[in-house]
Fold this protein.
Amino acid sequence: MKSWSRVVAVSMLLGVYGCGEGAIMVKEVDNGGVVVYPYRAEQGNLLSSFRKEAVRLMERKCPEGWVTVREGETKGRLRQASPIAGSNDIVEERRWGIQFQCK
C-alpha cells in the first residue's frame, strides 16, 4: 500500500508541474512501473485514447508482455479552462494509473 501512495503523490506532482498531456510513466523499475493517463468520466478509462498511449509505454518497457498489478483512479489536477484573465472556469482533469510488472 505504501508504494502505491508514493505513486499517487508522484503523479500529483507531475500533474501540477507538468503539462500532463497524454500518458506518462511516473515510476519505472527494472521489471515494471506505473503509467498514468488522463480520461473523461463520461467516456471512461478503458475508452480513453490515452490508454492506447499507456499500453504502448508498457509494451516498450516489457516487449515480452506484462501483468497488471493494480489500476485505478489517481489524483488528478485542477486547471483553469480559459486563458482569459479573471475567468473562474476550473476543470478537473481525472487520471487513471496502471501499475504493471513485466512477465
Remarks:
- Residues 2-102 form one domain.
- Helices lie at 2-17, 49-61.
